[in-house]
Amino acid sequence: MEGITYDLVIIGAGPAGLAAAIYAKRARLNFIVIEKTGGFGGQILETPDVDNYPGLMGSSGFDLAQAFRDHCEKLDVKFVTDNVVGIEVSGSIKQVFGEEDGYDCRAVIIATGARHAKLKVPGEDEYAGAGVSYCATCDGAFFRNKTVAVIGGGDVAVEDAMFLSNLCEKVYLIHRRGELRAAKSLQEKLFEKPNVEMVWDTVATEIKGENMMVSSLMLKDVQTGNETELPVNGVFVAVGILPNSNEFTGKLAVNSGGYIVAGEDCAASVPGVFAAGDVREKKLRQVITAAADGANAVTSVLEYLR
Ligand code: NAP
Fold it and tell me: How far is the CA of 178 from the centre of ligand 1 (A)?
């Protein structure tokens, strides 16, 4: 333990945590931001084009994350690198336990974001990093001029397919229904790509490989039951996200999906604990709603501390 009791500890340095830091600084709180080993930014780092954050059209996710971080640095926000493994929040002084140290505070904002869901088919774990990827912007370059499949029908799957279409010879977008969930504006752009082929009403049942690398994908048409084998060099899994809330379950109310239960004021089920960004139960998970949560959470923290 450091021997300091902070007004506030912010766990997580994605858009929600960094926005919260900017507001906490304006309120002159004594606080730290705990960012995990591996750095700041969160899932936004994996987005090639952020075309819906007001005023920053065409910015990459990395650039936007860097701009948030730079803003905090200019304000002298104190960052601590540690991996949080648990919290104790029953008393008026909250304790945040990291792998490296413990941190005492009067209020906590949990802004730990979310992670990629898995497909859960044979071969997925075996070929992870050997043709199976969860991040097109990170790994796309390995598949230049090759054939890949993207699995999913949300914003991420469509963005990944578009990004990969600029690098790969051919991209199959495999979706379990006959209609995409992704924003219509993204769909319009996707359908203009000549080397992207939609595979509708189809699920992947197995990822196969040769010589330790992905070589094909077993597919099943959910309408007809027909099974086919599609030769591919890579498989990009984009089937949704899961909240990074495991360290807090048992201490706070979470919903059936594991998201921390908190309203727009970000107040979790225990006084003095707030959840902001993708880890919070909410309808729309985007940078703009994460940043808004950061601001709302600090407003609630100030009311709580008063
Ligand atoms: P998502 O919106 O939850 O979409 C997940 C997709 O995967 C859905 O199409 C779903 O099919 C499919 N799926 C789920 N489980 C599957 C399985 N086992 N097998 C096959 N397909 C499966 O997730 P996301 O695309 O990762 O996006 C996460 C959040 O980030 C969303 O709120 C999204 O709006 C947001 N986001 C926004 C932007 C942006 O605004 N630019 C960019 C990226 C992400 P069904 O459609 O049939 O359910």
Answer: 15
Q: Is 168 a catalytic residue?
A: no
Report the atom number in ligand 1 closest to the C-alpha of 155.
Answer: 25
Query: What are the pLDDT digits (tens) for 154-186?
Result: 999 999 999 999 999 999 999 999 999 999 999
Bridge partners (DSSP) listed for residue 208: 216
Task: List, in order, residues 6 or more apart from 49 with CB less than 8 Å away.
Answer: 58, 59, 60, 61, 159
Whole-number Å distance between alpha carbons of 212 and 214? 7
The angle that helices 287-305 and 15-26 make with each other, rounded to 10 degrees, is 40
What are the pLDDT digits (tens) for 56-74? 888 888 999 999 999 999 9
Residues 174 and 218: beta-carbon distance below 8 Å: no
Ligand 1 within 6 A of CB of 286? yes
The CB of 155 under 6 Å from ligand 1? The reply is: yes
What pLDDT does residue 1 have? 63
* Strand ranges for the chain from DSSP E: 5-11, 31-35, 79-81, 84-88, 94-98, 102-110, 114-116, 132-133, 147-151, 170-174, 196-199, 202-210, 213-221, 227-231, 234-237, 241-243, 273-275
Sorted by sequence, the CB contacts under 8 Å of residue 68 that are 6+ apart come out as 15, 18, 19, 40, 41, 291
Choose among 115, 112, 116: nearest CA to 12. Answer: 112
- Structure-block tokens of residue 145: 């001029």
According to DSSP, residue 10 is labeled E
Atom of ligand 1 nearest to the CA of 152: 7
